[in-house]
Write a structure and sequence with these properties.
single chain; 155 residues; alpha/beta; Glutaredoxin; 5-stranded mixed beta sheet; two-stranded antiparallel sheet; globular
Length: 155
């Protein structure tokens, strides 16, 4: 997906088994972020950054939604262990990840694999993508600050 595209209507099921739909967020902005694997250092740092700045993001009008290939049970443990107070979609069949375009080839230490490309989409009140943070742009420990800097300064 690209800036200007509408996100899919059905996003998936979260860690509590709730179906999450784009229409549930109409009239609100959204930080929709994909992460490779719950309970890994980078993904934990990113999620904790977002949780630590949740009130600021909400004050700017943003709801936070995470998505990975992890099962609901692992997403629930991840949320509970880190005090995450936002939905984590369990996209076990990678439907949403593929639709978003954050499922693909990665290279790590010279090894090519297929998996989740850490990506963040800022979505407007109408479900349209306004900004995409690519894997190379995201600094997991300060990702919420990166988002807030963009939101407040428009860079």
């Amino acid at each position: 997906m690209n800036v200007g595209d509408k996100i899919p209507e059905i996003l998936g099921r979260d860690q509590d088994g709730n179906e999450i739909k784009a229409e549930d967020y109409r009239g609100r902005k959204m930080v929709l972020y994909s992460y490779p694997k719950a309970n890994t250092s980078g993904c934990t740092a990113e999620a904790c950054s977002l949780q630590a700045h949740k009130q600021e993001l909400e004050a700017a009008g943003y709801a936070i939604i995470g998505v990975s290939k992890d099962k609901e049970t692992l997403q629930k443990k991840f949320a509970e262990a880190n005090g995450l107070e936002f939905p984590l979609i369990a996209d076990t069949d990678t439907t949403l990840l593929q639709q978003l375009g954050c499922w693909g080839e990665k290279v790590a230490c010279g090894r090519h694999t297929i998996g989740i490309l850490r990506t963040t989409y800022l979505v407007n009140e109408d479900g349209v993508i306004e900004k995409i943070f690519t894997p190379k742009e995201i600094k997991t420990k300060i990702h919420a600050e990166q988002i807030l800097a963009y939101v407040n300064g428009g860079n």
